From TrEMBL:
This is HIT domain-containing protein. The lineage of its organism: Bacteria, Pseudomonadati, Verrucomicrobiota, Verrucomicrobiia, Verrucomicrobiales. It comes from the Bacteria. Residues 35-105 form the HIT domain. Pfam families: HIT. InterPro entries: HIT-like, HIT-like_sf, HIT_Hint. PROSITE patterns: HIT_2.
Length: 135
């Protein structure tokens, strides 16, 4: 199977690594701790219920690992996890740390206009923490 990351997902993220057949990407918006999980699937599988049981299990474990990382590293008050894909149909799961003091609270991050790019050193710190987390 040939896998190609959707250009829109690639353009706004930094790759942290791969786990259980999924790409793990840091969204380039330092306002929110926001990670995308992109299962390497054949085209046409867009929603979680379409996954074969073994892949569903792997994706669920990946979600748990990423959620634990966001919780441990960024210390948000709440985690939001969603597989939406209205604008980019390639399956991807958002794991977003939220806090009552973030500028979009209590609204959704998807439509929040604010952006703050990560500095390269911040990305490297997060990448190193991720690598330690998944060991």
């Amino acid at each position: 199977m040939s896998f190609t990351l959707h250009p829109r997902l690639a353009a706004g993220t930094f790759e942290l690594g791969e786990i259980l057949g999924c790409r793990v990407l840091l969204k380039n918006n330092a306002i929110f701790p926001w990670i995308l999980i992109v299962p390497e699937l054949e085209e046409g599988i867009e929603d979680l219920h379409q996954l074969p049981p073994d892949q569903y299990g792997d994706v669920a474990i990946a979600i748990r690992l990423v959620s634990q990382f966001v919780s441990d590293h960024f210390h948000p008050e709440k985690l939001n996890v969603a597989c939406i894909g209205n604008q980019v149909r390639q399956m991807h799961i958002h794991v977003v740390g939220r806090s009552t003091d973030d500028p979009a609270w209590p609204g959704v991050v998807w439509s929040f206009e604010g952006k703050k790019a990560y500095r390269p050193t911040e990305v490297e710190t997060i990448r190193a923490a991720w690598e330690l987390h998944v060991g």
